[in-house]
Amino acid sequence: MMDTLxxxxxxxxxxxxxxxxxxxxxxxxxxxxxxxxxxLGEIGFPTTEQEEWRFTNMAPLRQWPLxxxxxxxRQVGPADIEPFRLAGNGYCLVFVDGRFRPELSTLPGPxxxxxxGNLRAQWDGDGRELQPHLARYADxxxxxxxxxxxxxxEDGAFVSVPAKAVVEQPxxxxxxxxxxxxxxAVHARNLIVAHQGSSVKIIETYASLTSAPHLTNxxxxxxxxxxxxxxxxxxxNENERAFHIAAVQAxxxxxxxxxxxxxxxxxxxxxxxxxxxxxxEGAEAILNGLYLARGxxxxxxxxxxxxxQPRCESxxxxxxxxxxxxxxxxxxxxxxxxxxxxxxxxxxxxxxxLSEQALINTKPQLEIFADDVKCTHGATVGQxxxxxxxxxxxxxxGAGLARRMLIRAxxxxxxxxxxxxxxxxxxxxxxxxxFESLDTSLSSHDR
Amino acid sequence: xxxxxxxxxxxxxxxxxxxxVSEIETDAFSPGLSEEVVRRIWQTKGEPDFMxxxxxxxxxxxxxxxxxxxxxxxxPPINYQDYIYYAAPRPKKKLSSxxxxxxxxxxxxxxxxxxxxxxxxxxxVAVDAxxxxxxxxxxxxEELAKVGxxxxxxxxxxxxHPELVKKYLGTVVPHNDNFFAALNSxxxxxxxxxxxxxxxxxxxxxxxxxxxxxxxxxxxxxxLIIAEEGSYVSYLEGCTAPMRDTNQLHAAVVELIALxxxxxxxxxxxxxxxxxxxxxxxxxxxxxxxxxxAGRNSKISWTQVETGSAITWKYPSVLLLGDNSVGExxxxxxxxxxxxxxTGTKMIHVxxxxxxxxxxxxxxxxxxxxxxxxxxxxxxxxxHARNYxxxxxxxxxxxxxxxxxxxxxxxxxxxxxEHEASTSKIGEDQIFYCNQRGISTQDAVNxxxxxxxxxVFNHLPMEFAVEAQKLLGVSLEGSVG
Lengths: 447, 481
Hints:
- The structure holds two protein chains of two kinds.
- By secondary structure, chain A is α/β, with parallel strands linked by helices.
- Chain A has helices at residues 2-9, 15-18, 27-43, 59-63, 78-81, 119-124, 144-152, 386-394, 399-415, 421-446, and strands at residues 67-68, 91-96, 99-100, 115-118, 155-161, 171-177, 184-194, 199-208, 214-224, 229-237, 243-252, 257-264, 269-278, 284-293, 298-307, 313-322, 327-336, 344-353, 359-368, 374-382.
- Chain A has two domains: 2-280, no CATH class; 386-447, no CATH class.
- Chain A starts with a helix and ends with a helix.
- Chain B is of the alpha/beta class.
- Chain B has one domain (2-475).
- Helices cover 24% and strands 34% of the residues of chain B.
- Chain B has helices at residues 2-13, 35-45, 49-64, 103-111, 141-146, 154-160, 162-168, 179-187, 428-436, 441-457, 462-475, and strands at residues 26-28, 87-89, 125-131, 134-138, 150-153, 192-196, 205-211, 222-227, 232-240, 247-250, 253-258, 263-270, 282-293, 299-306, 311-314, 317-320, 326-335, 340-343, 346-349, 355-365, 369-378, 386-396, 401-410, 416-425.
- Chain B has a ten-stranded mixed beta sheet with strand order 4-3-7-9-12-14-17-20-22-24, with helices on one face. A six-stranded parallel barrel of chain B has the order 13-15-18-21-19-16.
- The interface between A and B is large, with 35 and 36 residues.
């Protein structure tokens, strides 16, 4: 704690926010928060000297006039929400500047197959369902921002799927930043519990209604029970002045199946920590990711797949497209612990560089302590294939369109893994817009 | 399953056959390191003044540095005052020819299979033999001198070619490069020096054989190889040490400089004493090796077979400055017992159309921990740079580990960088397939491991390839994954 205090002394404006002021809640939650705050001091604010933050410099954040986002800074109505809604006739939990807005949300009724609402309502009640899971999985020991979130979060989403329930319609968690005052910050916290044999699809969206710089520090914990199946899709498209820091941590029981997507296109600086912990035999995880960066954006993905037990499988696919002066960072870790025999782990990271000023740092990392395993990883960085371009052009397709087709094909691998049709449709639209914004630079490339 | 554990046991127990100690009269300093020791080394070696300045500069800088702990290895703290920083066989008299080398020294090298007798050697290899801190003999020097190649010990190079040493020393690995390189710069006692003049293709393989003998001595040697425009040289390096139960420190520096159209091929078979089953003893091998492709179309190729040392910490690197220059790294690293290796390479692409290839094969057995750590860096200036990396790990036994830490940093969109890695064990189905065709399990394992390493062995000069294959064969006797 002392360390954070002395550090923040120098930047009084930011100090209270990064010091980990304790959020609300009952005694059991307070003690978790206290613990997290102690950790904050032990870890210290990340610097590029630390291996985990080597390429992602968080120092600018400390110069910001950070403050907790205020409620009702701006009127937000159903019309503002509409463009972001993807759940169709499913459920949607809306949070504006970190505040739960039940009047804008579509919530399951008493007879519904699952329960979804905000965390605060849970801990204001008996909190029985939260206690065994909340802050039990996310990695606070090493991650400053996760610890900061645990100490400070004020609210967030809670989704609980009872045993054997199969929920067809997706549940969307929609986080919107609306405050016009620069430096508004939100610690978003989500807990998803899928009990034995259940199945659910979650869409987690982060977007901005404002063009002011803001900070999102989100933590999502997922607990997958025996044979549970969860598809989790994180869409991040915040404004290009925002800082977005997120940690997604899954804990998987026997034979559970987790399909994770991380689609990152927004923010000035985005850091996603996507981690799964395969705690019991036979669990399977698929980690899928697509990041598009242009301008001065930095998009960073750190993934960890921790094989703790035998016979688990993991497949990881991350695709990056870098334009402008953007910077892509990928760090994928696979751990195979000593007991995790018969592990099958695969990891692929492919990066497409569209401009001369873009920068990529990728580090696919394997740490293996068991011998009877099959593990592979691969990483590539390259540009569009000239032969493929020539092939298309020789068939009368213009250079610009040919390029776009090839880039789309590259991204498509990631898009196709998403089973949620509305998400795919929105992504298609987003990709089209993204390419249009690049068209000028692309065509100048041709000349 | 029983047969498996048996054979792994016998593998773990396979003996280190170079562990003998020779009775050679030695001049050695008492343990400890201070500015005084640095001065005494300089004095003992009779070096010119610029060397003292350089050594002291390095020593003073070293004092300000901290020992790095980022490698994925674990060892008790090193007390740098416990080591002897200079130990050399006592010269009986001034040598005028190779025949006058101390018979005991000669016998030591004979025993290691390195003949210092030129006439006895069938193969065309010139040897610089280094025992502890000093070079004891260099063969074929006259023959090499005929084509203008200078191949001698570092001490002699400093005496006879100070202008070359002054010009190139520390240009690739500066005195303040890292903790161990700084230490080496301050106290290095000998090593090999090689200069290949413009347009000369070195007529024979050059090699240095390093042998540690004195107990408690650290070995700090320095190798400097300069290949002038259009020249070619192939250089080999071999190392062994006696079995002792204390850890000895080996902190070497190798600098390679390839000018326009020049090529340097550097091969290492490292077989320092790895320590015993319990991990007692063995060499700490903390080495800085770096080559600079300074000119256009130059090429530097590192090939290493690492089977020894308790701890290996080594990243032979290539700085690709010249346009179209080529860097290569081929490595086999084997860890068994409680050996730990954190090894890999760095390829820094600066020039246009530069190419690098990395092939790393790790084999872990027993309780060995094997890490590959590599960096491929494409600077913005390196248009159309190309890299291909492949790093595979083979695990034998369930108590060992394999780790990969590849860093790819690309800042030029025309670059193409590919990295592939896999980890596997020798499959029962593969063994079964061989057995079924009348090949014993032993031979099958050897075949599979040799096949696995072939890509690297193919890049070793003939003599070394045979030695390396034997080395692995012996180590893997009876091991079934």
